[in-house]
Specification:
The protein is mainly beta. The chain has no helices and six strands. The strands form two sheets. It has a three-stranded antiparallel β-sheet with strand order 1-4-3, with no helix packed on it.
Length: 91
């Protein structure tokens, strides 16, 4: 996935506490099973990629969560509220 923000964020605020994946019960998944990277070319884009899907069950709901701990580089602002985006692993 690529998350596009309205403003660039401070790279040190992009980590597994600010962006992570939850299962349908709200439990955080192992951060070693995905990586998060800010785009150097487009500073408002953040990429999340699944490295290993052994924890992901097919046809179950998961969520990408973006906490309001990301801080913009320009005004030192945070998101007004956290964002939770659902997804399903399909065969």
């Amino acid at each position: 996935w690529t998350i596009e923000l309205s403003k660039p964020v401070q790279e040190e605020t992009i980590n597994s506490d600010s962006i992570y994946i939850e299962n349908e019960y709200g439990e955080k998944l192992n951060p070693e099973d995905f990586y998060i990277k800010a785009s150097e070319e487009e500073p408002t884009k953040i990429t999340i990629a699944i490295i290993n899907n052994k924890e992901y069950e097919k046809n179950k709901v998961y969520y990408v969560v973006v906490e309001n701990t990301l801080v913009s580089t320009e005004e030192n602002e945070t998101l007004e509220e956290a964002v939770k985006l659902p997804f399903i692993i399909i065969e």
